[in-house]
Amino acid sequence: MNKPLLIGPFTQLLPMTGLPLKGALQDEQLPIIKNGGILVADGKILKVGVFDEMKSSDVDVHRIEGDHVCLPGFVDSHTHICFGGTRARDYAFRNAGKTYLEIAKAGGGIWDTVTQTRKASQEELVKDIISRSKRHLKNGVTTIEVKSGYGLSIDEELKMLRAIKQANETSNVTLVPTCLAAHMKPKDWNQDQEYLDVIINELFPIINTEDLAHRVDAFVEESAFSPEEIKPYFQKAKEMGFDITVHADQFTTGGSQVAVDFDAVSADHLEASTEKEIQLLAKSNTIATALPGASLGLGCAYTPARKILDAGGALSIASDHNPGSAPMGDLLTQASILGTFEKLSNTEVLAGITYRAAAALRLKDRGKLEAGAQADFVVFPTDNYQEITYHQGQLKPSMVWKNGINVCQ
Ligand code: NIG
Ligand code: FE
């Protein structure tokens, strides 16, 4: 039997433990272990502490030379990295002054990606998901949520969810699938039956049987589904045991109320949220997820992250990586930039892409470096954690460990 592996020493080790799920965080609260080490066996963390105190004849040692900062592998709690084609034309239109809704009406928008994704085979989608997730992994992201939502028919949604499942089986990254069959009303739907009724009665049971997802999402917005229209969809999803997450308050409010009413795990976007929605979320169990990549891609306001934290809310930060509103797909860059605009402490930014993001996916075994957690961690070549956000994503990891294996160096 192999001995446990002691990895280190790390100049600074940030376990992200002992911090609250909700509310503002100051950097003085951030636990830092100097010259830290992580003891790993069978892909899990056995112990975190001071490297020299953990050395013994019972452990093998993977020695790290030079200055390094180690923290939990990043969790990207909201992406759409299963898609076909590109929307570069939308981006150019938008920068020429057309709005998101005007572009959608002119044949661009989500429906354009639906058309392009339907043309791709399941194998092509698997290949694209793997190549996009490899890029995220290199940047330190070890867990990625991935939504369907560019299929918008039973068969096409299943193709996407099966592609995500297949990619997860061969990828080094953990992919967490979410059914987003209510991304918009499909333009080609035969009006004889209600689209959402078919999704509820036919798609949800197959997702359960094939174990394709444990989470259900919808876009609650004037251009997609109203709060009233979406209720039966979430009602049924909840009855069937799915976790609920909502694309909420992106352009108009209403979605966060739906999220709180259904005790959703997260309400994501929130760029249009006002004081009322901020208070509502802060008092709830629903995690608020900021998507700065969508603000950067669309050229619009950021989620009021500072206000959400000051009101006592829990804040996750995710990339929303998708071909339309958030084509960049660089979580650390986006989270760092959100920090500058919203005046977030380093601890708030790092919490938003580690343990608070893991909580938005209901994953208790990651986002923190502690005994029993997955041995997923990212290492940066510096002696000071402040350098990480300061370089706004340009300081790249020197190593990324996933399940106790050094997968990128
Ligand atoms: O999260 N807002 C809705 N859905 C995506 C955009 C998808 C797209 O434009 O293709 C989002 O921003
Ligand atoms: Fe999204």
UniProtKB/TrEMBL annotation:
This is Imidazolonepropionase. It comes from Flagellimonas olearia. It is an enzyme of class 3 (hydrolase). One of its GO terms (biological process) is L-histidine catabolic process to glutamate and formamide. GO terms for molecular function: imidazolonepropionase activity; metal ion binding. InterPro entries: Amidohydro-rel, HutI, Metal-dep_hydrolase_composite, Metal_Hydrolase. Keywords: Histidine metabolism, Hydrolase, Iron, Metal-binding, Zinc. Its EC number is 3.5.2.7. GO terms for cellular component: cytoplasm. Residues 71-404 form the Amidohydrolase-related domain. Pathway: Amino-acid degradation. The keyword Metal-binding applies.
